[in-house]
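Sequence in, structure out.
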Amino acid sequence: MTARYTCSEALLERALATIPLGSQTFSKSRTQYPFGVSPYFITHGRGSRVWDADGNEYIDFINGLAAITLGYNDPDVNAAVAAQLNKGVIFSLPHPIEMEVAERIVGLVPCADMVRFGKNGSDATSGAIRLARAHTGRDRVAVCGYHGWQDWYIGSTARHRGVPLAVRELTHTFPYNDPEALDKLLAEHPGEFAAVILEPMNVAEPKPGYLAEVARLTRAHGALLVFDETITGFRYSPGGAQEYFGVTPDLATFGKGLANGFPVSAVAGRRDLMKLMEEIFFSFTFGGETLSLAASAATLDKLTRSDVCGHLARLGRRLMDGVDALVLRHGLSDLITVAGHPSWSFLLLKDTPLATQWQTKTLFLQEIFARGILSLGTHNLSYAHSEADIDRLLAVYDEVFPLLRAGALEGRMAELLRCPPLEPLFKVR
């Protein structure tokens, strides 16, 4: 066992006996974290910080896979949840808070006339696709980005074991920022596409006019445009990426930051489309669970009252500019780039003749974890992050980048790694 992670590694061994991969969430599992140099379990968090099972403290830039937009243990969210807990969690009839949160979303999101709630982003995207199929009478779907674990989407990835071939054949991928490729795809199956669903932005900025052209092409082919705003919603701006970029889809899906980590998601869209929710089946015992909706109400209130999105953008720009400067200073332009939106940016690593990107990523994680930074190469910012947190991250990168240079560009990877490298996984962005 590793001295720094004794408890985490013991808990992992125990968890593997009863939980496949040792985690309920693939992106939190041992597949993502090199053994011997990584924490595997977090016990608590506050603000921008978390503590692992061994008591090690980290500034967290994963933030619950971007679900934490305000910070851990936000006092306003906690107070709202505690107040609702004393009244009840779920009832035999709807609670008024369902309507109240729906009204808040309608007031913020351009495409939203009506709203239905789920628990996970996958619930919302699957509901939107079922709705699009019901409205159009068509079966095929075009996808761009990551849209959850359900058969209709995951069948299009390398992780499609267990998905029937007939389902897989109905989902088609298209590249981001290439409207001609989308037009060609839609034309190959005329009159058969129910929906085009995409993350309006992930790693790359949309080219000027790209999202508007996607909207035009989608409607020209008689399909519905769905924005998967599971991450971008309530992060890029209070009205999501559709407000930020000025392009309004037919439907949109939300999750993650909607309730600062509490489990709730939403499908929102045009009234005529959403009314079809009365005819298709989209229903959850816990769809109106009041604690998550109380958290959502408090989160949305704080989002608009405190300029959360502006704070994320300002800190994120400081971070991205700082990384760019460090890359230049250390001569690592052939190895490292930073991309994405300031509130949700990515450190991208490249293969070199002397090391794979997976070896370099393993070394990167090994070194930042040891220095109290929790990240997987993404910077998912929260309102609790401070300028001091950004400065500390950049100081750690200033220490670690020379090691990455030594490993990936100077051939010293074997002597620097203290663990086996990570294995390649399926890629969706």
